[in-house]
Amino acid sequence: MSSIFITGASGMIGQYLTSSLLHKKHTVYAVDSKSNDFVGTDSNYKFVQCDITDKNTIIPILENNHIDVVVHLANSVDNDIDPLITDQEIKKSKVTDKYIYSAAVKAGAGCFVLLSTTDVYGIQKGREPIRETIAEKGITNYADLKMTSEKLMAKAFKKTDCIPVIARVAPVYDAEHTDNLHAHVYDSKENVGYVFGDGDYGFTFCCVFNLIDFINGIINVPQGRYEGVYNVCDSRLTTAKEIIEYEKERHRIGAVIQRSPGSEKTMLFNKGKMKNDYRYFDPTLTYNNWIFDNTRAKRIAPMRWNLTNSK
Question: What's the topology of domain 3-172+205-233+291-298?
């Protein structure tokens, strides 16, 4: 079994990952500014409560224990931070990156997994599948935060034995955490849900179980060169119609109106809010139907989960 170090261990993704790793009998070293329900429940779970910038507490954990894999979930919107990304969050992430990468290398960690975002690709022209090789041109604060993390990571792990893995994850959801889904079908100004036409257009998201399967796959893969960037997301688009039906079944959305195709171009769009708010959705992007090519990630995990089978 392996020894895994998790940052942001009390966030939504962190707790799912912890549960999976403990079930597989791995040893988990975990840090977060908040406690969680795993503390004191398993001898294989070693938790320290501290801020992610507290290098004087975190570095000794890496140095004093044999860590096979570091999974860096802290400073990530869908795991533990507010969707409103300000200069403070960007600075905190950069402060963390500057010490934790070098600390992992010096401690002899075999692999480092960074939770990044598909936001780094920005707005694309055309509908070609978005592959990991295209240029990054994110336009949001969160994209800037993660692009900085990726660049610092590439520099820190160059010519080292520690294998760097960047998981560019689409907006995450599970049966209860559907804020990312909801934002694409809800008009907060009018306080109504909405679809254009029959709602057959779709968006790319990531069921949290696909992400957990991917991380487990990285941990369990035989020794080899599997470093690099991976698009981690569901294998099919989730349609607006599916989201509306899902939320209505759970009484999480009320009135829903049908708008005519083309009317999205007349809806108000706040470019400044989109830059700061991770979940703000520009309705003029409704019919882009971008597909993120997850072929590379599917070599590690099947990406079999979606909104239908993860209820």
Answer: Rossmann fold (3.40.50)
Q: Which string of DSSP letters, residue by residue, matches 67-109? A: -SEEEE-SS-TTTTS-SB--HHHHHHHHHHHHHHHHHHHHTT-
Place of tokens 């975990």: 30
Strand, coil or helix: what is 308? coil
Output the CA torsion sign for 243, 249, 255, 256.
Answer: positive
Mean pLDDT of 54-63: 98
Residue 45 to residues 29, 40, 77, 208, 216: CA-CA distances in angstroms? 6, 8, 24, 21, 17
Structure tokens at 249: 């079944």
Contact partners, residue 20, CB within 8 Å, separation at least 6:
212, 216
pLDDT for position 296 = 97
Rounded to the nearest 10 degrees, the angle between the axes of helix 208-220 and helix 12-23 is 50
If pLDDT is split at 50, 70 and 90, which confidence band does 224 have?
low
Using the predicted structure, report yes or no on whether residue 271 has a pLDDT greater than 80.
Answer: no
Percent of the chain with pLDDT over 90: 84
What number of H helices and E strands is found in the chain? 9, 14
DSSP 185: S
pLDDT at 77 over 70: yes
Is there a contact between 216 and 182 (Cβ–Cβ < 8 Å)?
no
Q: What does the alpha-carbon distance between residue 146 and residue 135 come to, in Å, rounded to a whole number? A: 14
As a whole number of angstroms, the distance between CA 38 and CA 44 comes to 10
